[in-house]
Structures are given as structure tokens and as C-alpha cells.
Design goal:
Layout: E1 6-10, H1 20-35, E2 39-43, H2 50-63, E3 67-71, H3 81-89, E4 93-98, H4 102-111, H5 116-129, E5 139-142, H6 148-151, E6 158-160, E7 183-189, H7 198-210, E8 217-223, H8 229-238, E9 245-249, H9 253-261, E10 265-267, H10 283-290, E11 295-298, E12 311-314, H11 319-331, H12 339-349, H13 352-362
Parallel strand pairs: 1-2, 1-3, 3-4, 4-5, 5-6, 7-8, 7-10, 8-9, 10-11, 11-12
Length: about 375
């Protein structure tokens, strides 16, 4: 690498308390860029209004780094279109990071309770602005499958890849519970939304405990808050498994560490089909493995095969039956992967150093 080269990640995001995963991601890329010899930093205004996006555009123009990664801001991309074109003329590299496919964002807008005309205008503006705004850039990073409309003219320069993890921040847990055990301890850490599918876990646990022949019980530890939290609490109570579902609220630092150290298996999103996603690349999956916690999940991910030992892929046809089948396999002698194995996978395939090298190779940066 040329040590005089500059690298910058820009985008409008929520505060660290609202979107901690995004901030960790950006910090991870900046640290990796520095390790690779770049002069690297980030600019992340938290204003979600047009002013925040205008600040990003001005900052990108004034500082004009050799490599610029921009977190996609959908309709506000039009503000950056002239800057992308200018950078292309200067032979500077511009990369758009699309955290969620635009088609999924459009579907979410359509499903919201805002007025029909307001929803229509927003979606029409998105279709007008995108993907034209991406045409001058060098690469578009996607973590799931995009529609043909929003891929028009950029499919040849789209990199489908998995998210990374900052191994310096996500330390391997110091302890892990033994297995077999009287209880299988599942852990879900999230700002809980309907597409996490935690309701499937609660229903499967209720069915599991209806049988008196099970050789172990199941405890589900839910760490975090979110719009779906009260729904899950009500469901657990109605199904009579309130004592088996531990809602612990938000936790950080050593308080969060203790939950990881007592868990056997992490729970990634089990309901992504609810927002029409087949392929996903959740940050939480990577954090689980970096911590040394294997996890269960549904769908497809660029970083995990269907037979990966530490990322246990469940069939998506009937989620609750898939969970019960998984529990029965543990009862039949299936081993829970060790922490060291999970951490080694993260080190080999998921670090931001690995991800950034992949991006640089894709854009042909020497």
C-alpha cells in the first residue's frame, strides 16, 4: 500500500446509543485501513434531516480522499451525484455501502402507516434517484440480493459480500458453560424488531416443555429493547413460559459479557422473510462468533455455508419445527461447538482487515 493514500468513510447515522453496530462497523473499517497503511478517518453526522446529508456532501467534496466509502442514504444520494462524477474524473475511488437493499427499504415504506400519497411520492422519488446516483462510482457493496431496477447499470460493479467484525472490540469470552447440561441456554442480543423472529423461539420452547420426556430444559435470554419487546413478553406469558424467557433489557460492557459467558447458543434473526430478505449479513452473527458463541440462523449469508459448524443453519419452511428438530438433535448427542472454534472462524473470515482487502481487490486498488 502507498502510505500517503487517504481513506474516509462518511454517512449519516444515528447516535452511538441508537445505532452502536453501525458505529462499530465504521470504526472497524477505519482501524483496518490504518493497519493497511492509509491515512484514515470517518465523518458521521447524526442529523437525519437533509442538513446531515448536505454536510456529508460538502465534507466529501472538501476533503476528497483517495478512497471514499459512502453509507447509502437512498434519496439523498442525488446530493452526491455531482461529487461522484467529479471524483471519477479525478480517478479517485468511490464506493457505496448499501446496508439494506433498496427494494427492502421501499417495501418497508409501503408498509408504514403514512398516507398513501406520501408513501407513493417517497417511493417514486427513490425510483427516480436510484440507481442513477450510483452510475459514476467504482463499486456498490451489497449484503443481500437487490431488485433489477435498483441494480440497473451497476450490477457489473456490485460486490455481494458479508459484513465484518472488529475483533479488538469483540473479545472472546473467558468462560463457556458445559454441555450436556440441565438447561440449554439460548441468547438473543438485539434491538428487537418483528423480523428477528424471537416469537418463533418462544413458541418452540413452549412446545418443547409440553413434553415431559425431554432430557433438558431451555432458557432464552433476551438482551435488548425495541418495538417488539412488549409483544414478546405478552406471548411468553400467554404460553406459560414466562419463567423460561429472561428479558434482561439493554446491557453493555461487563454486564453484557456475563450473558455471553453463560450461553450455549446465540440466536440470529429467524424472521427475515418477513421483510422479504433471503440473503442477509447481520452484524450480530459476526459479533456472536467473535465472542466465541456459535449461533442458529435462517436464510443465506455470503460468509456461511449451509454446513458451517459454528453457524447452524435451520430450514426456513417451518421455523418452529426446525427449532424443535435442532433441540432434538442436541438431545441425540449433537455437540455444541467450542468457543475457540467459533472465534477462529471469525479471525479467519470475518475481520475488517479481511473485508477491506476484499473490497480493495474488487476495485483493483494496488
Amino acid at each position: 500500500m502507498r502510505h500517503s493514500s487517504s481513506f474516509k468513510y462518511v454517512g449519516v447515522v444515528g447516535g452511538r446509543d441508537i445505532e452502536p453496530g453501525v458505529h462499530k462497523k465504521v470504526l472497524g473499517y477505519v482501524k483496518s485501513a490504518k493497519r493497511l497503511g492509509f491515512l484514515a478517518d470517518a465523518y458521521l453526522p447524526t442529523s437525519q434531516s437533509g442538513l446531515g446529508h448536505f454536510k456529508v456532501a460538502c465534507h466529501s467534496l472538501v476533503f476528497s480522499p483517495d478512497i471514499l466509502i459512502v453509507r447509502s442514504n437512498e434519496i439523498f444520494q442525488i446530493l452526491l451525484l455531482p461529487i461522484y462524477a467529479l471524483r471519477r474524473l479525478r480517478r479517485q475511488i468511490t464506493i457505496i455501502d448499501v446496508p439494506t437493499p433498496v427494494r427492502a427499504a421501499e417495501a418497508e415504506i409501503k408498509g408504514k402507516t403514512e398516507s398513501g400519497i406520501q408513501s407513493f411520492l417517497r417511493r417514486a422519488l427513490m425510483r427516480l434517484v436510484l440507481p442513477i446516483s450510483y452510475w459514476p462510482v467504482n463499486a456498490v457493496i451489497q449484503y443481500s440480493d437487490e431488485s433489477y431496477w435498483y441494480s440497473f447499470g451497476v450490477r457489473h460493479k456490485t460486490l455481494l459480500m458479508g459484513n465484518g467484525v472488529d475483533l479488538d472490540l469483540e473479545k472472546k469470552r473467558c468462560n463457556e458453560p458445559p454441555w450436556p447440561s440441565n438447561d440449554l441456554r439460548l441468547l438473543g442480543v438485539a434491538r428487537i424488531k418483528y423480523w428477528h423472529g424471537y416469537d418463533h423461539v418462544i413458541r418452540a420452547i413452549a412446545k418443547w416443555h409440553e413434553s415431559n420426556s425431554s432430557s433438558f430444559g431451555i432458557v432464552f435470554i433476551v438482551v435488548g429493547d425495541g418495538p417488539e419487546l412488549e409483544v414478546l413478553k405478552k406471548l411468553a406469558s400467554e404460553l406459560g413460559v414466562g419463567a423460561r424467557i429472561q428479558f434482561e433489557g439493554t446491557a453493555h460492557g461487563s454486564a453484557l459479557d456475563q450473558y455471553y459467558e453463560t450461553a450455549h447458543i446465540g440466536v440470529a434473526s429467524l424472521g427475515l422473510a418477513r421483510k422479504d430478505l433471503l440473503i442477509s449479513s447481520e452484524l450480530k452473527k459476526r459479533e456472536y462468533l467473535a465472542r466465541g458463541l456459535p449461533f442458529i440462523w435462517i436464510g443465506e449469508d455470503p460468509d456461511f455455508s449451509a454446513t458451517c459448524d459454528v453457524a447452524i443453519n435451520l430450514p426456513s419452511e417451518s421455523v418452529e419445527e426446525a427449532l424443535l428438530s435442532f433441540f432434538r438433535s442436541l438431545e441425540g448427542g449433537l455437540a455444541v461447538p467450542h468457543s475457540a472454534t467459533a472465534r477462529e472462524y471469525a479471525e479467519q473470515y470475518l475481520s475488517y482487515d479481511v473485508k477491506l482487502r476484499q473490497i480493495l481487490r474488487f476495485v483493483g486498488y494496488k
